[in-house]
Design goal:
By secondary structure, this protein is mainly α. The protein has helices spanning about 5-10, 30-50, 55-70, 75-85, 85-90, 95-105, 115-165, 175-185, 195-200, 205-210, 260-275, 280-290, 295-305, 310-325, 345-365, 365-380, 395-400, 405-415, 425-435, 445-465, 470-475, 480-485, 490-495, 500-515, 520-540, 540-555, 560-570, 570-575, 580-585, 615-625, 640-665, and strands at about 240-250, 250-260, 340. The termini are far apart.
Length: about 675
Amino acid sequence: MSTRALRRLKGKQRGQEALDLGDLSLGDSPEEQAEAEVGEEQLDTANAANVSPPSNSKSSSRKTKKNKAQKNFSNIYELIGDAENESDRVSPDEDPEKNKASGTRKNNNKDVENQDQKHDEESTKSGDRAKKKKKKKKTKTTSEDEQLNGAATENIDLLLENVELSNGVSLQSEDCGCSVRRSVLHVEHRNLNPETELKRYFGARAVLGDQRPRQRNRHFHRSTWMTSPKESWPRFSRPGISMTLLESKNGVHYFTFEHNRDYQQVQFKFLDAVESMDPNNIVALLQLNPYHIDSLLQLSDVCRIQEDQEMARDLIERALYSFECAFHPLFSLTSGTSQLDYLRPENRAFYLALYKHMMFLEKRGCPRTALEYCKLILCLDPDSDPLCMLLLIDFLMLRSREYKSLLQLYQDWEEHRNLSQLPNFAFSCALCHFHLSQQEDVDPEESDKQRRQADQMLQSALIMFPGVLMPLLDLCTVQPDSTVSSHSFFGPKSQRGQPPALAELTALYVGRTYSLWKEAAVMLWLEESVKEVLRRVDAKEALIEDCQNKRKERYQSAPRNIHRHVLLSEIKEATSTLPLEVTTQPVMGFDPLPPLDSVISYTRPERQHVGASNESTLSLFFRSLLPNFNLQGGLRQEDDMEVARAGQELNQEVNRLMVAMRDMLANIRFQEPPREDNPYRDEDEWD
């Protein structure tokens, strides 16, 4: 065993020796001087023999100087600080003249110590020398690692710049319209987490509680912004979804999701499960593919219908986590420059997952977080707005009290989107001005200005959309005045005379935002504005007739994205106003009202005949009579000749069935029971 190991076992390692008062003296003790002399004699012998190189002599002189300096402390904490800063004080490029002066100064000592102390001194010096070498190596390796990391980051930055330049894109360059949209619809990562809003309401301790992550038995997942993985979820594996950058134009990146071959096969199985109308088939598919997006969305709707809100929300969060793990490195949720085309079926599931998650957050009491997701959906395709988020964003801004943001959005987008022609913006902006006028920290002049703007905007909204008032008062359980209900401008005649598209927008707004108008102050303000509107109507102002002509011309038919939004909102007052071409066609929860000009990347193969186990009882009965009978055999024919041939075969099968039924009925014989003479029969009994 080495001497250093023996000293470590005895507890004599540096910094572990027992300290007494003699060691804390200001001057040098005789023992310290003797130890210094031993070191000086070793230096003299080394220099005389010229065996060690100059670097060794310098290092040994530094060792003795350091050991001597370490004893001259009156405070033990200075010794600890000196040991920590040892590498800073000792530099490899010291002045050789200082080393010579220190050597001559040390040669003046004359006392000699015994051999045991000499051996201990040599062992400690060798240990210190080894430690210094290790420290030097560490500093060298850390400096080299920093250089390598710096070079790697520079290379990554250069690579990204080259990619952007090759695509003709710069993340900093944006056109005027996009910069305006970023200023209004800017998304922040921290606002995508509902816990941020809940902590602001109830505090961190009430929100987190026992949900804080434990260090033991902790599963490490990928860091995501939208959802956090739960321990109850199945183990994540790549479901087969990836994201690709299609093109970059005018500072905007256009991405799309892609499905590999395995995922396409699972998608075909999912479509078969949906057509079977049995949710158990979707559950069985999810057991094999726990992160299949469309299955999660469809099963979430089933759980929500069965009032299992917790499971429905959990399935949507799992779908979002699967999407976020497939993001492209350049795809950003907050920049506003990353867009997805809704015409591609692979991208629609991401829109729907975000929308459903947003609605769960709004019902959970997190309107600010729901607003952030609404802005995110709108930024994915602001020009087309496939889910028509402009019909919802005003409600969420009012719920989260983002009044100035709503007015800024109305001001910026009115020029190119005509937001004043939507009933929700016409009434919500007036309500924003009213709430701003009611704030306590506003100057009286500013409050009066906001109130005048609120009165003006509300009167204009009532003149343009008179059909909003009576349904709104009905849902607010307010009995209108007889002069209002009997007037032709607000009465039943105005309800019946609305164009179909305007009736749909009006019912949607009233059914969604009636709770915001129930406040007493808001209702009094509404009453004053209604009286003023009736006065202007009776005065026959030119604006009244002008708005009536606009209503007849502009709201004849609603676009497809508005119908899609009404279906997703599930507001009864609005869904009852949908046209027949929407209500008569089947609507799937995983893809409601797909665009007519969809961009199809892969098609579903011809469906095979379904086995007898999935058929109904009536189908099994007909199959038992006619083995060639197939209920779904002629439903998927698209060619006219095949349809005609299928009709002929169906007629033949029906004729054969009728012949078989006729033969069966003809062969039925009813036998009379044998008559026996009954001796106890009454003669007067009727036969």
